[in-house]
Amino acid sequence: MRLSIDKTINSILDKLDYSISELAKGALESSEFQIESNEVNFFLLNQYDIRLQNLLKSQDIDIHYLESGIKNRIIQRKQKIFEEIAPLFQD
Questions:
Q1: To 10 degrees, the CA torsion angle through 23, 56, 76, 46?
Q2: 57 in Cβ contact with 49 (< 8 Å)
Q3: Are 61 and 8 in contact (CB under 8 A)?
Q4: 44-53 pLDDT, tens per residue?
Q5: Distances from the Cα of 7 to the Cαs of 2, 32, 80, in angstroms?
Q6: Given Cys at both, which of 11, 12, 70, 76 links 66, Cβ 3.0 to 4.6 Å?
Q7: CA 85: distance to chain centroid?
Q8: Distance between CA atoms of 70 and 75, rounded to whole angstroms?
Q9: Which of 48, 44, 40 is nearest to 75 (CA)?
Q10: pTM for the model
Q11: Which distant-in-sequence residues (6+ apart) come within 8 Å of 22 by Cβ?
């Protein structure tokens, strides 16, 4: 069971990383997102959380019942992707 959950979480996080990276690039190129970089970052953070919840729900996984190690991995991946996209929005 543990291996199955790990594999599923990794797949979800891979999809989420790609999705947020593409959204960030799209926001950078779109005239609709001519707002402050901190507002774009806030938008992307919210989108990350919403998309994560939706992807978990699609797999019948409730984040509140995940082991702390898996939650920590999710947090680390979130930090990593936002560190990678942060330079895109530097003023």
A1: 40
A2: no
A3: yes
A4: 999 999 999 9
A5: 9, 36, 19
A6: 70
A7: 11
A8: 9
A9: 48
A10: 0.86
A11: none
